[in-house]
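Researcher: Go.
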Amino acid sequence: MSEQTVIVDGQALTIEDICAIAENSQTLQLSDNTDFVKRIDKGAEFIDTLLKEEGCVYGVTTGYGDSCTVSIPLQNVEELPRHLYTFHGCGLGKFFEADQTRAILAVRLNSLAQGFSGVRYLLLQQITELLQQNILPLIPEEGSVGASGDLTPLSYLAAVLAGEREVNYQNQTQQTKAVFCQLNITPLILKPKEGLAIMNGTAVMTAVACLAYQRATYLSQLCTRITSLASIALKGNDYHFDEKLFTVKPHSGQIKVAQRLRSDLQLSVEAPRNDSRLQDRYSLRCAPHVIGVLEDALPWFRQFIENELNSANDNPIIDAEGEHVLHGGHFYGGHIAFAMDSMKTLVANLADLMDRQMAQLMDTKFNHGLPANLSGAKEDQAMLNHGFKAVQIAVSAWTAEALKLTMPASVFSRSTECHNQDKVSMGTIAARDCIRIIELTEQVAAAMLIAVVQGVELRVNQAPNNAHLLSADVKKTMSELRQQISFLETDRALDKELRACMQLIRNRSWSLYE
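Model: Structure:
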């Protein structure tokens, strides 16, 4: 099997697997192992047996939620799944992006592949078909409270599997029915437990969390490289990242960040050090302590996210092997909610750190001899040109918006659905907030990277003989930026270049630290 293929067979997947599927850098394949197929189908067969014996199963022979006391006559059981996804078709807001939608499908498929959801193998094949053909349900972002799972957004997946609603196919919005007809895909008629199994889980928030994790990890490294460049441009005191210094407060994340800074700045016991000032301002001196909190949190973010990713999280849980129907609350997204609320605060702190570094670079009172606003204009044009003045204002705006969104979503639980869902996680809102904060922080990073490379070049121009002191990694980052964005000598609109730099960040184009 190709290394470029992710196999779904009930075994654990990683965040990286989901992100690779989302980016289309790896394909997904559903296992056709006989034992796996039998294990999946056994759950659906157990549900059929219960129905024949007139057993009572929530969401199969009863209504949903507060309506669980309403019995469904056996002759109407087959109709119930369609009603479930139909009345949940009330999502609003923007549609999830293509990469997010692929991640949602992959996460839901992996959860159902655990074999505790009472669905047919055929249903897993249908989700796989969507991913392999890149038929992406149009899923609205808004409408989930994150307990009883992501009911409303996942209803759009359930409806599409049945040939209804709309999809994005070949970059066009099309009716699902027409696309299925074109590709000879047979719409599913969902079996009694299958509508609930698709919808009553945490796939949306978990998928978004996987993508957020990957982007936050990269931003942590990029912010560290930007800090190195800022330290060079501002003639910072390299002693602030001394190895011995960090042994006395041994948080592993901040130790890692300090080590990366030492490497970028070529700081070693033998190397000459710049200590022209006793203490730099906090946005340089305390950068390892700011970035390091995120680095220290990443391992337990991974634990929370991957645990959720590899769990059966619908209700009821169908234990076909032991012949049990287990009613519980595994659809509750509290772990993802907490991880996303925490991550968004840490990422917003990166934006704030870079905003403060930007302020130092621009202001002649603090930038130790650099031109105002990092203007690269020649002397006879200096009075006309404004360098990065407006960019700094924009950076402050993006940072303020990111900080504003750090209010935890998980504390805003609302009692809903006739007080059946009386304590909910708001995990999907937390995940969406986190992605938005990451986007804003990527904007800040793009602006700061362009500005700080200019700052280093201006500093080198002041002392050309010191150019050799730049490390190979720092030079590489600067060179890669300059291949896309030229030095700012005279005023020009920078919006297209900022967007291009943001896309490079999203594509993780800079190779940073091992």
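Model: The longest strand covers residues 5-8.
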